[in-house]
Write a structure and sequence with these properties.
Largest sheet: 5 strands, mixed, barrel
Strand content: 25-35%
Shape: globular
Number of helices: 8
Number of strands: 9
Helix content: 25-40%
Radius of gyration: 16 Å
Strand order of the largest sheet: 5-8-7-6-9
Length: about 230
Amino acid sequence: MSTHINAREGDIAELVLLPGDPLRAKYIAEQFLTDARCYSEVRGMYGFTGFYNGTRVSVQGTGMGQPSLSIYVNELFQFYNVQKAVRVGTCGAVQGDIFLRDVILAEGACSDSAMNTLRFGGLHFAPVADFSLLSAAHSAARKLGIEPKVGLCVSSDSFYDEKENWRLWAEYGALGIEMETAELYTLAAKFRRKALAVLTVSDHILNGGETSAEERQSSFTDMMKIALEAITQ
């Protein structure tokens, strides 16, 4: 039993979706899973297990930022035998040909975080997605009539970027800025698990425009469907 999830052995499936927002976890469980049961409410970070098309799936909130996600993913991998983890989150677009509500499949994650600096010292680790999950998500999106963008995201520790570092990331081809994926991919590499981030563009840093908190919580269903189809392949 882990400190922060506090679920019993067997409560959590080997396949887990990871929204940052715990209310998005609740929404996914209620709208997409059958026989869903809440296994954790510790610190209001909901976790549910149910079935998607007959396959047992869990959904666990992770909170905002890499340090918060790191706690939950470490515990999921170490104590609950989770084998596949797909982040379903939001990002801010930094390219002109990407629009609000577009879906991004993050094949890799850049970062300004100190977390991997502390891990690797002067070395540089490249956090990347699992190819089988990435391929499955791309195929699932196409079958659903969705044309996803595939490329790099940036996991930043700063939500309010006063120095506008996003401009440099954009110059080097990053598609969107978010706060968690680099740590998820790094932990998946360490524990030899499979991970992917499926992101919805919730605001546009370059062109302006944003979605509401309610929309981010419950209306970004395309990425939820893609993630569920991919993780259950």
